């Protein structure tokens, strides 16, 4: 196992910062590594706390009386200079758990009401996103969405289109569009499951 010698905060931004990690590898060679993190300071980094508290939440929700549509957003992302299909998602506030965060984020991004469903911990606990670059982790909340689509609660900096996609549209999206990887894997379940969330019954 490598040894971390020092950590220096490189930036001072509100939502994400860059940290420089100086280390010695298991092969006794020097390591100069950079980590992007939601942490506000060195002491809050997951490599320091060793605690995997979710930074954000993603929401896999089904819509419609026949439970035949999945709620997606088509969002412009400056990292790509293009649009990408994702699940509704967002950061968890300090004073809320991730189920509460999911309900809030669903409303803010889509105008829809989310009714979360209980699932085994293995399906909802926070997992890491792009661990070669960041310590960010996200929990997943599953549920059923209802109501009317609205953009009234979206932030002025956001460019979001809400998409209620059936299986044919999901097939097209996977074949032709930019899709976030976590969303893509879940959409593959949506295509294969005869009943919504059937795969969630594999672990009890």
Structure description:
With 204 residues, this protein is of the alpha+beta class. It has two domains: 3-49, no CATH class; 56-202, Nucleoside Triphosphate Pyrophosphohydrolase (Alpha-Beta Complex), CATH 3.90.79.10. Helices cover 21% and strands 34% of the residues. The chain contains five helices and eleven strands; from the N terminus they run E-E-E-H-E-E-E-E-H-E-H-E-E-E-H-H. The protein has helices spanning 46-49, 98-110, 121-124, 167-176, 181-192, and strands spanning 3-9, 17-24, 30-37, 56-63, 69-77, 82-86, 89-91, 113-116, 127-128, 137-146, 160-165. Strands 4, 5, 6, 7, 8, 9, 10 and 11 form an eight-stranded mixed sheet that branches. Helix 4 (167-176) runs antiparallel to helix 5 (181-192). The radius of gyration is 19 Å and the shape is globular. The chain starts with a strand and ends in a 12-residue tail after the last helix.
Q: Extract low-pLDDT stretches.
A: none
The CATH architecture classification of the largest domain is Alpha-Beta Complex
> Counting H and I runs of at least 4 residues, what is the number of helices?
5
Our estimate of the beta-strand percent is 25-35%
Describe the main β-sheet briefly: 8 strands, mixed
CATH topology of the largest domain: Nucleoside Triphosphate Pyrophosphohydrolase
Judged by helices, strands and strand pairing, the structural class is alpha+beta
Instruction: Supply the CATH class of the largest domain.
Output: Alpha Beta
Share of helix among residues? Answer: 10-25%
Radius of gyration: 19 Å
Protein name: NUDIX hydrolase
GO molecular function, one term: hydrolase activity
Enzyme class: hydrolase
InterPro entries: NUDIX_hydrolase-like_dom_sf (IPR015797), NUDIX_hydrolase_CS (IPR020084), NUDIX_hydrolase_dom (IPR000086)
């Amino acid at each position: 196992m490598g040894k971390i010698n020092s950590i220096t905060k490189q930036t001072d931004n509100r939502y994400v910062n860059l940290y420089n990690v100086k280390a010695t590898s298991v092969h006794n060679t020097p390591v100069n590594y950079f980590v992007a993190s939601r942490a506000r300071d060195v002491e809050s980094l997951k490599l320091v706390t060793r605690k995997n508290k979710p930074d954000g939440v993603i929401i896999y929700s089904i819509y419609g009386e026949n439970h035949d549509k999945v709620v997606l957003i088509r969002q412009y992302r400056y990292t790509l200079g293009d649009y990408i299909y994702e699940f509704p998602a967002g950061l968890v506030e300090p004073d809320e758990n991730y189920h509460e965060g999911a309900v809030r984020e669903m409303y803010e991004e889509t105008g829809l009401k989310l009714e979360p469903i209980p699932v085994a911990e293995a399906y909802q606990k926070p997992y890491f996103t792009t661990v070669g670059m960041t310590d960010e982790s996200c929990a997943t909340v599953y549920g059923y969405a209802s109501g009317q689509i609205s953009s009234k609660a979206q932030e002025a900096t956001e460019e979001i289109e809400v998409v209620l996609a059936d299986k044919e549209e999901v097939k097209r999206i996977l074949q032709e569009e930019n899709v976030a990887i976590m969303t893509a894997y879940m959409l593959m379940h949506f295509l294969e499951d005869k009943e919504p969330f059937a795969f969630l019954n594999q672990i009890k």
